[in-house]
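Amino Acid Chain and Its Fold in Token Form
===========================================
Scope: a single protein chain, as residues and as a discrete description of its fold.
Amino acid sequence: labelled as such and written in the usual single-letter residue code.
Position: the record begins directly beneath this header, with no further notes in between.
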Amino acid sequence: MNTISSAHAWMEFPNSAPSADLPAAKVSPSSTAQPDRRPRLPLWGIAMAGGLALAAAYIAIPPLYIERTDDAYVQADTVSIVPKVPGYVTSLHVTDNSRFKANDLLVEIDPRDFDVAVKVAEANLRSVQAAKANVLEQFGQQNHIVAAAEATIASDQAALQFSQQQFDRYNDLAQRGAGTEQRQQEAVSDVAQRKATLDHDMAALAAAQAQVRVLQSQGKQADATISLQQAQLDQAKLNLSYTKISATVDGSVANKTVQVGNFVQPGQTLFAAVPTEAYIIANFKETQLERMRVGQRVRVRIDAFPNQHLDGHIDSFQHGTGSNFALLPAENATGNFVKVVQRIPVKIVLDGPAEARLAISPGMSVEPTVTIAEPPRWLRPLLALAGDPPA
């Protein structure tokens, strides 16, 4: 009863001290210290700030040292293997996707018709060569005839001169009455006969000389015929050589459409020869080219082999955008204009490794990364994340 009365009295008079019968309240030592009112950043906020800073660095720093694009493909100077002569395919030394070396024999076409053509051309050439030899013999013979005609004319001239002298003597004697009229007439006749003989032989010499010119013309004609037959022989031999198709560079077979026994026509595609040496055509945006130069180092990631990288360098820049050479180029001078960032094809030559270069094929997608400035070592891990693995 006393305890209850004391508690009731304390409740009515709160400012009064509690009775000694009540237990004393326990007071914590920390309740007397000043509270820490400084704001604290939660851990998730710190993590978010760090992530934003890393993302900002990932976006802002790599463009200072590298340029990259995913609009890039492997290309090679593929050659279509086509025959230049018609015929049946007798031998095929390659098959689907097989590899070959330069100068390896790839395809053989039936050579018999072309071998016969070579023999015919050789016979025709020998025939015209024999005709030329005959003309040369006639030419030599005609030269002798001309020489004989010239000698005959010299003899006729000497005989005419003697006859003229005889005529002069007999004519002088006849005028003085010492000679006979008959002898004078014989001298006149002899002079006329000698002149006629000289004129005849002069005409024969002219005919002989004309025949020399004819033979010279025949000789030139024979030379032209020989040249023609020689050209036909060369063409026949060339056609015969076309029956064997050899490789010009190292490569492999693709898109083969021919089999042994097929009849092929000139210009018909038998298969594609894909050279071993390939390169990259990367279509960079025009805004990426400011600091790109020929010879800069390039690392190429192959989509087909994500863990394999190829080394290369910039070989050249195409002088013209891809859209400029399109089938229907844009006509920006008409209608409404919307500016579009253009792309410039950049040729990248691969340097190695050789094993990976043999594994890639034209048409594969790749992602080249061009090093436009050498970064410090501490930045290389960040650039590796951006697509430029350490060299």
Remarks:
- Residues 1-31 have pLDDT under 50 and may be disordered.
- The CA atoms of residues 9 and 15 lie 11 Å apart.
- The two ends are 94 Å apart (CA to CA).
